[in-house]
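Sample pair:
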Amino acid sequence: MALTTAYLVTTKNLDSFLNAVRTAQAPERVTNKFLTDLDFTSSNDRLFIGVFKALGLINESGEPTNRYFEFLDQSQSGRVLAQGIREAYDDLFRVNKEAYKLDESEVKNKLKTLTRGEKSENVVGLMAKTFVSLCTLADWSKTDTTVEQPATMPVMGGGIPAGATADAVSVTTGVANSGNKFEPMGLHYNIQIHLPASRDPAVYDAIFKSLKDHVLS
């Protein structure tokens, strides 16, 4: 889990800064000098470095990561940015998997809870503004790689005792092309059993026997 506390005092230069980074040659390190070379000379602009670290675009030493170089590809930069945001604000996305659709006030309220009062009202507000501004510049159409489809499994032949239910989650593992050869999509199923509350061991014995006979065989 993760929740970055990096934020910008103002986001008015965010879009232009990201565009400047995409069109500039990658430096050995992203430093204040690099920002100055891109004509971002305000003390507030220096906060971009912390945000870039949080997004995984540079490491703690300021050196560009693989994600940074992927970000330079303008056809992929929106997707790469979204990926970085999901990781940097993982706790927020655990609260709401579509957190990027929330408005600033909604994000601020959730961050208040997540930060447990450790940040001031002003800082939480700036964190929320930074998150929302980043999200508006990201491409969220290509970030969902899994599809969850909860479903209640039918009672098996051996019979799962009353009160026991199961969820089947279907996850797409991918489609690949190798030359002119098309490889079909594969599916992986994760079955989750919700056990009923019971003190009778026979209930659980029946459940696991049914699994063995009808799922694991």
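The two ends are 36 Å apart (CA to CA).
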